[in-house]
Amino acid sequence: MTTFLFDGPDSAPVTILLAHGAGAAMDSPSMTATAKALAAAGFQVARFEFHYMAARRYGHRKPPPRAETVNPEYIKAIADLRAKGVTGPLVIGGKSMGGRVASMVADEMFAKGEISGLLCLGYP
């Protein structure tokens, strides 16, 4: 199961799922500031980390993988977020590499009705 950090109201009409950039975690200052600003605007924001970044929290430092290799992790995060009971419109995106990965899965997820939009922050 994907680990999420949530900001904003559970009752928000739209949820935004954000992934981090290649070198900074989901709780980095820029990701936190972005999530707080979006939450203040009335969105629910869910942040998550790709496995290589989560492993760094336990001393397993790995370089970032090629963006396309983590596409399945983003798709799983969408499913896990829905499994946690998040319903309604979902916008996916992220900072830098996270935005790139979101953009690579967006067409497929939109066609399946899983997402409503894409938000890229600092797209590489």
What's the number of domains?
1
For the record, the CATH architecture stands as 3-Layer(aba) Sandwich
Specify the CATH homologous superfamily. Answer: Alpha/Beta hydrolase fold, catalytic domain
Task: Calculate Rg over CA atoms.
Answer: 13 Å
Counted beta strands? 5
Helical proportion? 25-40%
**What class do helices, strands and sheet pairing give?**
alpha/beta
Distance, first to last CA:
28 Å
Summarize the SSE layout with pairings:
Layout: E1 5-7, E2 15-19, H1 29-40, E3 44-48, H2 51-56, H3 71-83, E4 90-95, H4 97-111, E5 117-121
Describe this structure in words.
The chain is an alpha/beta fold. It has one domain (5-121): Rossmann fold, CATH 3.40.50. Helices cover 37% and strands 19% of the residues. The protein has helices spanning 29-40, 51-56, 71-83, 97-111, and strands spanning 5-7, 15-19, 44-48, 90-95, 117-121. Strands 1-3-2-4-5 form a five-stranded mixed β-sheet, with helices on both faces. The N and C termini lie far apart (28 Å).
